[in-house]
Amino acid sequence: RRAYLSQKYAAELAASLPPPPAKIVYDGTILRTEGRIPLGAVALSDGRVAILSRQHGLRSVELYGEGTRQMSLPLRDPGEFQGGGAFTLSPDGRPSVYDQGAIQRLADGSLQALPLYPSPERPVTALLDGPDGPVLGVKGQPPELWRYTPDGQRRSITVLPGLRYLWGLMPGPGKAVLA
Question: The whole model's pTM is what?
Answer without folding.
Answer: 0.71
